[in-house]
Amino acid sequence: MDKPTRRSFIAKTSLLALGATTSGWAASTSKPMLTHHVFFWLKNPSSKEDQAKLIEGVKTLSKIETVRQLHVGVPADTEKRPVVDNSYAVSELIFFDDTHGQGTYQDHPIHKKFVEDYSHLWEKVIVYDSAVV
Fold first, then answer.
1. Whole-structure pTM over 0.85, yes or no?
2. pLDDT tens-digit map of 65-104
3. Are residues 11 and 50 in the same domain?
4. Structurally, how many domains does the chain consist of?
5. What is the 3-class SS of the chain, one letter each residue?
6. Domain extent for 126
7. Are 66 and 106 in the same domain?
8. Are residues 10 and 60 in the same domain?
9. N or C terminus of the chain with fewer C-beta within 10 Å?
10. Residues 55, 2 within the same domain
11. What are the pLDDT digits (tens) for 36-54?
């Protein structure tokens, strides 16, 4: 029998923690879920003020009652690879329970106000909606 080492203890503990975390996540997401990932390209890509203003606007969308989670991001300073597109300025990742929740979001006054108040900042928007499997 091998003598336990610090490395083997950490590896076993990490695997146990990962199993507990993923099984807990799976149990908490038994309902269908939809993700709404939006990428924005600014008209003035070098403007930090425009980027900050757009981020401020995106964060207001968290007040919509069907939004379960909202993550706002900017391109990460990761390794440059052919499969990585970091040409956008701001992204939002929103989680909904289902397509009905996403539809409510689309028609919500807060979302309409966001488009009205901030669309002058962007030149291009791409949306990826996906159902969690």
1. no
2. 999 999 999 999 999 999 999 999 999 999 999 999 999 9
3. no
4. 2
5. CCCCCHHHHHHHHHHHHHHHHHHHHHHHCCCCCEEEEEEEEECCCCCHHHHHHHHHHHHHHHHCCCCCEEEEECCCCCCCCCCCCCCCCEEEEEEECCHHHHHHHHHCHHHHHHHHHHHHHEEEEEEEEEECC
6. 31-131
7. yes
8. no
9. N
10. no
11. 999 999 999 999 999 999 9
CATH number of the CATH domain containing 122: 3.30.70.100
Span 13-23, mean pLDDT?
44
Co-location of 76 and 14 in the same domain: no
Contacts of 32 (CB under 8 A, 6+ apart): 97, 98, 131, 132
Residues 3 and 19 in one domain: yes
Task: State the amino acid at position 58 in one-letter form.
Answer: V
Contacts of 90 by beta carbon, 8 Å cutoff, 6+ apart: 39, 40, 42, 51, 54, 55, 58, 72, 73, 74
